[in-house]
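testing teh design pipeline on a random one, pls ignore if ur not involved
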């Protein structure tokens, strides 16, 4: 028995197309559970799934949002400086 499973987020109008794109064959019986989603919640889960594919480097674990923002600004400034220096 094929135990293919997928979480599909789509509109009611495009449910069939989304199932086919996910690899489910037309004419086969599937079990479907549906719920309304908040677009922000959906985006959060999509991005979280992407981020969860990459482990957090130990030096960044436990950083606050402010720490991450400061670090990102520092890195961007360094990249800009390297690009600026390479154009001289």
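output:
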């Amino acid at each position: 028995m094929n135990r293919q499973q997928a979480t599909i987020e789509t509109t009611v109008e495009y449910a069939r197309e989304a199932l086919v794109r996910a690899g489910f064959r037309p004419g086969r019986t599937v079990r479907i559970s549906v719920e309304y989603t908040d677009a922000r919640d959906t985006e959060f889960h999509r991005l979280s799934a992407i981020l969860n594919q990459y482990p957090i480097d130990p030096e960044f674990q436990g950083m606050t949002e402010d720490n991450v923002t400061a670090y990102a600004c520092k890195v961007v400034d360094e990249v800009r400086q390297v690009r600026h220096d390479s154009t001289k």
